[in-house]
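Quick one: structure tokens for this chain, please?
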Amino acid sequence: MFDHARNDPGRVALSRKDDDGAWRDVTSAEFRDEVLALAKGLLARGVRFGDRVAIMCRTRYEWTLVDFALWAVGAQSVPVYPTSSAEQVLWMMHDAEVSACVVEHEDHAMTVGSVIDRLPHLKRLWQLDKGAVGELVAAGAHIDDDVVHRHRRAVIPESVATVIYTSGTTGRPKGCVLTHANFMYEAGTLVGRWEPVFHSRSGDEAATLLFLPLAHVFGRMVEVAAILGRVKLGHQPLLQADALMSDLASFRPTFVLAVPYVFEKVFNAARRTAETAGKAGVFDRAVDVAVRYAEAVEHRAFGLGPGPSAGLRLQHQFFEKAVYTKVREAMGGRVRHAMSGGSAMDRGLGLFFAGAGITIFEGFGLTESSAAVTANPPERTRYGTVGQPIPGTTVHIAEDGEVWLRGPQVFSGYLNDPEATAAVLRDGWLATGDLGRWTRTAI
């Protein structure tokens, strides 16, 4: 981020909404200056190298700003889901021994406040909607920039970047310790292998709208990869269909990363629109053609068929104007590729979007692996699968079907839980607890 600001200060790095709801571009130099000013404020208010600071907030610009400011002083961010209960907040913040906390609004502050007497390490609580950023920037105005730079230069690849807690569906949430090396390998691999598909067309400005929760490793990896890969980054805090579709239309991303649920929302919204217009039958025929067209293209890519027939191409061309263009317009009009993770995507849904002109690369990963360990490659996408191991990653299917993996993005262990760490890290392999199987040529 600092290198980008030095080498290309005027490049648009992010975009944020102003008070009137309009998107305002933020250059690399402006973002660097904001991060630097906030980092000085954190130092002025007692945040030190190695401290853990919780962030309880929806996906918004300030989340990323605080995240990078913490990293600039060598601190570790601890994401907390904004919907977490008081007991969940207590467990995570107590286990991580957080020394400070940034919350979004009063409800979050009250949740933390209800358990603050049981958090002996927590010394500071800042509320974004009460002017926390401005207060911190003012507090650090007297500190020289070089103080931050000295902290920043002390951060090494093996330094802890964040502690992200698991969902706790199989017991108490466990804190996954992820280093800067974990993040940079994962983000660097994503950018290096998939950067061409970040664009709508060759040479245009890559842009993505982040609406995944930043408390989840997938959202964090999007954040880091966008900054690293010079992709203009916007934030959207709401997953309600109306708000999301409105921001997709106004921000106009060239590439999106999401969970299957979001693509299901886009599909369902498109069908409801067609139904309201009395064209549900046309839409359903367009879906059938899109699926058959994409499946024929897929078969050709794997040497299993000649590709779409002349008749199918003609039908596809007709529905391109009548239906598919409108589906793409609902996502801003520029999206041609997307990435999906978090849960399995229905093969038919992936084929529909491919036939409608948006290729979705499905992948697999978990918090312990800093997000993706497998993903479909751009040139040979097999819908209904999670693709191949990403470069530098090894995947092994054990005799009982459990997926084991190893690679530079695998975490160093669970915070304060050597027993749980030993249960999943075995001779350099991460036992994921998930089941999988290899697919061969047949689709």
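DSSP finds 15 helices and 19 strands in the chain.
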